[in-house]
Design brief:
- The two termini are 13 Å apart.
- The strands form two sheets. A seven-stranded mixed beta sheet has the order 1-7-6-5-4-2-3. Strands 8-9-12-11-10 form a five-stranded antiparallel beta sheet, covered by helices on one side.
- β2, α5 and β3 form a beta-alpha-beta unit.
- It is α/β, with parallel strands linked by helices.
- The chain contains eleven helices and twelve strands.
- 48% of the residues are buried.
């Protein structure tokens, strides 16, 4: 049972966030029109729901899906495949596709997400980029802003092949990065190097703003289908989108050089990928509303939150800073108990593959690891931050947060 005081608190907060909700509704309508137009422009029909097996030659559904995604993302081309296991896998494939021995990879948003540590070679692994002779450099953000002086210095002193920008904060304490800042830094980079490949980790950010990073000059973007663009219906997969010549390299690295994008069976997922994309604008906006309400309620209860309920958002992630290990754990356990799947499970911190610290992860989802369905997780380290994201509907998300707060208090 939910305490009456919590019900009253939520009712009060819902009234106070209505202006922010209206902004989300406008965004949802604009992005829905964009997605609908892409479906119409590429004549999506029932034949595109068909499946292929084996090599997957001549899969017109797969090819049409990639055209639709490319239009939605303002891309020349896109690869959308269930052969990508995750967003981290897609990022790995793209990095290995674009970089060669003696090349330099530069991150200008600090250290990337923990699951890339062994991919890059920050943490030793015999299969890392470092093991193949690819160097890595890093420029940290300063007060959530790009360090332009250090970026300029690095580009002048080195011939950088790929610049990586991670938009969402990952497990850091910084703010996520909006399209306006992406556009400004791309213009700055092009003053010093017109050829460097600018790659954007776009996970958690799709359809949160009207523009894509490709609209403002990025070369290639990467994201997961069990996050925003899968709409909660994609069973797995990821995408890469951007310049056609770069996507050709990615396809060769994902499959086989010489066969590239011509192979890759869809195994019955075409309808789910199309339906998921169709639902994505609405699902993303439900996630944003849940994040806004969470931010407002937790702030009223005296907790630090980021972003604030009325701040401009560029991803679906809501941070709650507990400064207390037990409170982080209790909040995540509350989210799990209000989930439709495995509500009886009790999440505990554990040594999750690919992460430096123990992680607690609540995700009672229909698709394993699907952040867009509503999940809440965090590393067991100071300042003990919960990273909450997703919700297929506003109502389910609101109920889960109410249960989590009830559990917390």
């Amino acid at each position: 049972m939910i305490d009456k005081k919590i019900n009253s608190l939520f009712a009060e907060c819902e009234k106070e966030v209505q202006d922010e909700f209206r902004k989300v509704d406008i965004l949802c309508e604009k992005n829905s029109l964009k997605v609908l137009n892409a479906f119409r422009n590429h004549n999506v029909s029932e034949i595109h729901f068909n499946s292929t097996t084996g090599y997957g030659y001549n899969d017109i559904g797969r090819d049409t899906i990639e055209k639709v995604f490319a239009e939605v993302l303002d891309a020349e081309d896109a690869i959308v495949r269930n052969q990508f296991i995750s967003g981290s896998h897609a990022l790995t494939v793209v990095l290995f596709a674009l970089l060669r021995p003696n090349d330099i990879l530069l991150s200008i948003t600090g250290k990337p997400y923990d699951t890339l540590d062994e991919v890059i070679g920050i943490k030793e692994n015999p299969s890392s980029l470092k093991a193949f002779g690819i160097s890595y450099k890093q420029v940290d953000l300063i007060n959530d802003e790009f360090d332009l002086k250090q970026i300029e210095k690095t580009l002048k002193e080195n011939k950088v092949k790929v610049i990586e920008i991670q938009r969402s904060k990952g497990y850091s304490t910084r703010k996520s990065i909006g399209i306006e800042k992406i556009e400004e830094v791309i213009k700055f980079i092009r003053k010093w190097d017109k050829d460097v490949i600018i790659m954007i980790d776009n996970c958690y950010c799709e359809l949160v703003e009207e523009k894509s990073p490709l609209t403002v000059g990025a070369d290639i973007i990467v994201g997961s289908l069990i996050k925003n663009l899968g709409g909660g219906l994609a069973p797995n997969g990821a995408y890469a989108a951007g310049k056609k010549e770069l996507l050709s390299l990615v396809a060769d690295r994902l499959t086989v050089p010489g066969e590239g994008r011509e192979v890759g069976p869809t195994l019955g997922v075409n309808k789910m990928l199309l339906q998921g994309l169709f639902m994505a604008p609405s699902v993303v906006c439900s996630s944003l509303k849940v994040a806004i309400l969470t931010s407002k309620v937790l702030e009223k209860l005296g907790y630090e939150v980021e972003p604030k309920y009325n701040e401009k958002r560029c991803d679906i992630v809501q941070n709650i800073i507990f400064h207390d290990k037990d409170k982080l754990i209790k909040y995540c356990q509350g989210i799990q108990s209000a989930s439709p799947v495995d509500s009886n499970a009790l999440p505990l911190p554990w040594n999750m593959p690919g992460y430096t610290n123990q992680v607690i992860m609540a995700a009672g989802t229909f698709t394993q690891g699907s952040s867009i369905e509503l999940s809440c997780d965090g590393p067991i380290r100071e300042p003990y931050i919960a990273y909450q994201q997703g919700s297929l509907t506003y109502e389910y998300g609101k109920l889960a947060v109410m249960v989590a707060i009830n559990n917390l208090l």
